[in-house]
Amino acid sequence: MINNARDLVKNLDSIASLPSVFTRIDKLINDSGSNLVDIANVISEDPGLSIRLLKIANSAMFNFSAEIDSITRAVAVIGTRQLRDLVLATQVISLFKHIDSSIVDMHSFWKHSIATGILARLLASYRRESNIEYYYLLGLLHDIGRLVMFVEQPALTAKAISHRIDNNITLHDAELSIFGFDHSAVGSELMHSWDLSRPMCEAVCYHHRPSLSLNYSKDAAIIHVADIMVNALNFGCSGESDIPPLEDAAWKMLDLSPYVLTEVVDHLDKQYNEVINLFLDDES
Amino acid sequence: MSVIRVSHVKAGQIILSDVKDRSGRVLLPAGSELTHENIKIIKSWGVAEADVDADLHEPATRSDFQLADIDSKQLEHVEIVLAKRFRFLNKNHPFTEELYRLCLRRELLSAGLIDD
């Protein structure tokens, strides 16, 4: 019997732990004796990862005028924390590679997640946030709890889906009725089990109700608004077929004019195909 | 007075309240006249809206394309699909109005009912 999100994640045996390269970079960043070259060396040990990061650094996501031709240069130009978050973003998708596409359309799931990441990153840049890659990563991760629910509890998930249709509610609300908890709590517990930071877990946990987050409501609000926009624009699907409701307080927290949306979506259109190819090329 | 999107302001209009960047720095004080030059500057600072003396009332939706030219059956079909997708959102919220306008435009474009 699964009573809460923590129980569901505790019983997981099918989802691997995080690759060590992320934790090693994270340790180096927090070690004042380390430098850029140490971080670049850890990344360079993995040639596949290095090539992928260089492609990302030279993509429309960054639009640098000069070519970034080495990992050391990428670390210097993009920033250590930013690169750490991109490393995790490139690796998290492959952790769920084994999920059978008859259970979840993984390609569509990641399209939704990547588009949410790109939009969250763009909204963060309009707000002049310092590490915008962090928001890309949060967007990518925001619905991973749903994968756990689909894989571990297919019968209850099917029940939630029909409950949604019968009652004309969002899948998020249907999860709460059928499971007693939702995918944001499951995702947050999974990230916690990976030892990801508390701010990240909390932002994902409250991405449907940002104002309930005690400390990271602004981060949750950025993901909340990005998720709503992606559902409206119909980029991929993570299970929700309609747009989840907007929390007015979350929109106000962003402190942006609605008139930025056109420009933000223009940027999304320009980056989307390239970023999808960069992150999904051999994973789908 | 009308708060309008910066892409719609025109040289010669007068700014009615200070135009500020995200950090609150005033880029153009109230009373300034817009010129091609300073419009370019406020755009490059990421300013999205400005309060100008033009008496423009932007319709909440449907502002940059002519719905009158579209076959009403086809338009109705697109609007029904969108209304279902938007049904959990408060339609009078400024964010939702803008998002709906954007989505309507995209759907009409992809259906080949309007030109880019």
Task: Assign the CATH topology of the domain at 5-18 and 100-280 in chain A.
Answer: Hypothetical protein af1432
The CATH top-level class label of the domain at 5-18 and 100-280 in chain A: Mainly Alpha
The helix fraction of chain B, in percent, is 25-40%
pLDDT < 50 stretches of chain A? none
Structural class per helix/strand content of chain A? mainly alpha
- Give the N-terminus to C-terminus distance of chain B in angstroms: 30 Å
- Beta percentage of chain B is 5-15%
Annotated CATH architecture of the domain at 5-18 and 100-280 in chain A: Orthogonal Bundle
Low-pLDDT ranges of chain B: 58-62
Strand fraction of chain A: under 5%
Shape of chain A: globular
Q: Helical amount among residues of chain A, as a percent range?
A: 55-70%
Give the name of the CATH superfamily of the domain at 5-18 and 100-280 in chain A: Hypothetical protein af1432
Largest interface: A-B, 28 and 26 residues
Biggest sheet architecture of chain B: 2 strands, antiparallel
Which class of secondary structure composition applies to the elements of chain B?
Answer: alpha+beta
Please identify which CATH superfamily of the largest domain in chain B we are dealing with.
Molybdopterin biosynthesis moea protein, domain 2
Q: How many alpha or pi helices of chain A?
A: 16
The H/E string of chain A reads HHHHHHHHHHHHHHHH
